[in-house]
Amino acid sequence: MPKVITAKEAEELFRKGERPPAGSILTPSARDIFTDGVKLGPKKAAAPAKKAEPIVPDYEFKWAPGSDPKTPEEIEKFFHSPAIEALKHKICEIGRRIWAKDYVDGNGGNITVRVGDNLVLCTPTLISKGFMAPEEMCLIDLDGKQLAGERKRTSEAMTHLGIMKRQPAAKSCVHAHPPHATAFAVAGVCPPTCMIPEAEVFLGQIGYAKYQTPGSPENAAEVGQIGVNHQAIIMENHGVIVWGKDVEDAYWKMENTDSYCKTVWIASQLGNGLHTFPADKLKSLIAIRQSLGMSDPRAGLRECELCDNSDFRPGVTCAVPAEGAAPAEKADPQLEALVRQIAAQILKKLGGS
Asked: Using CA atoms, how far apart are residues 129 and 177, in angstroms rounded to an integer?
């Protein structure tokens, strides 16, 4: 029976410089190899793929101006579109992260993402941010009117909208009560500047909004105005609200704010004062911030106007006097005697009652 030569066998024969045995049958592929007696040459190596340029992921939600859905049917279709469903899942993820970091408790905090000229996704009212589901999200307009969603929107969405109306770059807001930054809010203290480079680049100067009732038009106006020039805002006796180009960016600024306040608080207790870097160094950091696409109103200030922490009053500190330091001022003997006299009278009164 004649031998059948396959293409693989034909290749092997050619590598050895041999011809097929007489009387053998070549498959069509094998015959092609031997056509015109041209020996099969080595396979050419594939050209290396062109290396892609490194990228920075962009999570900002973009829409075509004037493309907002109008009819109830269009709004519902938009509300359940794949892109919006993905954002709902992302909001729930951010909710779990702020809850896990102890930035919120109970039903505290809220999250918004702008998705149109007049459309904003937001979290519902009275819900734990650590246990939200995508189907519980709401769709509202910039006046706070709810357009879609089975759960009622958060009342504090109006504060978020107060920022978004005034600052077009604010595409997402996160409000929470991170303990260290909220302590500054309760103490009525605005964090100082020129202390940590990363804070200056990614946060800028932290803003401070005077107290207004949460969810009220007054609070929306107060915070909204501060939010024009500040991406992180401490709300007096309330908490913190931050904004960014997307919800991940906004969440990072919440972490940045609380971490910065925590560091400043600890440093203020070490008894060695708070050291700042020079104003000319802050100029360089502001330039880096601008190169990353973040504006900073301090860019136009003179160096003498930067790093002004004259209003910052750190808490009481305890420190062991350094060797060679001047002795502390002696107490007034008359004042000490008066204190002892008053204490004795109080103890006598208590003993006789």
From this structure: 12
Contacts with 150 (C-beta within 8 Å, 6 or more apart), sequence order: 135, 136
What is the average per-residue pLDDT within 297-313? 83
The two beta strands, 25-26 and 4-5, are parallel
* 156 is annotated as an active-site residue: yes
Find the mean pLDDT for residues 210-231.
Answer: 97
Tell me which residue of 175, 179, 186, 79 sits closest to 129, measured CA to CA.
175
On the CB side of 241, how many CA atoms lie within 13 Å of its CA?
Answer: 34
**Is 72-271 in CATH node 1.10.260.40?**
no
pTM: 0.76
**238-281 confidence digits (pLDDT tens):** 999 999 999 999 999 999 999 999 999 999 999 888 999 999 99
Q: Which among 156, 200, 222, 236 is annotated as catalytic? A: 156
CA angle at 104 for the pair 317 and 126, rounded to the nearest 5°: 145
The CATH 3.40.225.10 domain(s) of the chain lie at 72-271
Q: Which residue has the higher pLDDT, 345 or 285?
A: 285
Structural tokens at position 104: 């919120």
